[in-house]
Amino acid sequence: MKFEVSAKLAYEALSPSTLILNIQPFKSVGQVILNEQLTTTPDLIIKEWYATSGEKRFQVIEIREIGKVSFDYICQVENQIRTVDTSLISDVPISMMPVSVLPYLNPSRYCQSDKLYKFAYNKFGNLNSAMEKVIALRDWIFRNVEYIGGYTTPQTSAYDTITEQTGVCRDFAHLGIALCRALTIPARYFTGYAYQLQPPDFHACFEVYLGGYWIIVDATKLVPVNGLIKIATGIDATDTALASIFGNLKFLSLEVGAKLLSDEFIPLENENSLQGYTYF
Q1: Reduced to 3 states, what is the DSSP secondary structure of residue 240?
Q2: What are 70's strand-pairing partners?
Q3: Are the C-beta atoms of residues 50 and 60 closer than 8 Å to each other?
Q4: pLDDT at residue 271, rounded to an integer
Q5: What backbone phi and psi angles, to 5 degrees, belong to 272?
Q6: Does 266 fall in a domain?
Q7: pLDDT at 50
Q8: Do both 112 and 225 map to the same domain?
Q9: Is 225 in contact with 216 (CB distance < 8 Å)?
Q10: How many domains does the chain have?
Q11: Is there a single domain that holds both residue 93 and residue 225?
Q12: Residue 109: its pLDDT value, please?
């Protein structure tokens, strides 16, 4: 499946600053960057870094002069989406998990799984497999948390969301991650572009480690999973932010786009199972 994604950002530099952008799709065997371009106004020096953990690549940009600065990114990307037959997925004991997976079992700043342990086990602990638990908690979040903007902040955590039962995609993802980790299921934060999301914006969901696969789960059910283009994964929103500012930058505007370049798009949607991305 081929997509074209884009992002336009504008800031006002009130002092010399450093900006770390995280808006470019991650490169992998299953997600191939066909062409991309990032331009800045005025011209700025850009360095690209790959994260040592998780899946993300950063653009590190030095802004030495005060004044307005804008960024215009466009990318053509091809995804090879593989669906995983849920009947073939078996639970993976912790002792058999790769070392790289283990950090996603722990509580984190926005995903306080240690505070939600009792709730998670009372609500989902009686289910037989990790797969059943993930499907059940995804559907519980969808039914019980109202998707609405303006009621949460960048400081809102999974514990806040389960208390207030309102939020946006970021909050749905954090809650899903926290409940999975409370059930000893590795889970990580996913951010990306989303085809068919209205209004267009960056989108957040989460991935769970099941049967040796990282499988994507979207408790908002706002977009089909094969319409997602991965930018980054991480512990939670703390290390997957689209922009990290060091200095004094005033945010002015953001515009995001995602359109299909292929001839046909057949959405992957199945209420009784999960579809998964696997990147080999």
Answers
A1: coil
A2: 10, 41
A3: no
A4: 54
A5: -100, 5
A6: no
A7: 87
A8: yes
A9: yes
A10: 2
A11: yes
A12: 95
Q: Do you find a cis peptide bond into 200, omega within 30 degrees of 0?
A: no
- Whether residue 50 sits in one domain with residue 175: no
The answer to whether 84 and 274 have CB atoms below 8 angstroms apart is: yes
Phi/psi for 149 (5° steps) reads -90, 165
Decide: helix, strand or coil at residue 211.
coil
The whole-angstrom separation of Cα 158 and Cα 253 is 27
Tokens of 108: 């984190």
The number of CA neighbours under 13 Å toward the Cβ of 249 is 25
Instruction: Note down the domain range covering 62.
Output: 2-80+245-259
Cα separation, 26 vs 181, in Å, equals 24
Phi and psi (nearest 5°) for 62?
-90, 125
Q: Quick check: bond before 42 cis, omega within 30?
A: yes
Burial-class residue 100 by CB neighbours within 10 Å (0-12, 13-18, 19+).
Answer: exposed
Distance CA 110, CA 124 (A): 21
pLDDT value, residue 275? 52
The amino acid at 10: A
Kindly state whether residues 184 and 217 are assigned to the same domain: yes
Profile the chain (280 residues) by mean pLDDT over runs of 10 residues. 96 96 92 95 92 84 96 94 78 93 96 97 95 94 94 92 95 98 97 95 95 91 92 94 95 96 77 47
Task: Kindly give the pairing relationship between strand 67-79 and strand 2-13.
Answer: antiparallel
Burial of 212 (0-12, 13-18, 19+ CB in 10 A): middle
Distances, alpha carbon 72 to alpha carbons 21, 30, 35, 107, 124, in Å: 12, 25, 14, 36, 44
Regarding pTM above 0.90, the answer is: yes
Question: How many alpha carbons lie under 13 Å from residue 234 in its C-beta half-sphere?
Answer: 24
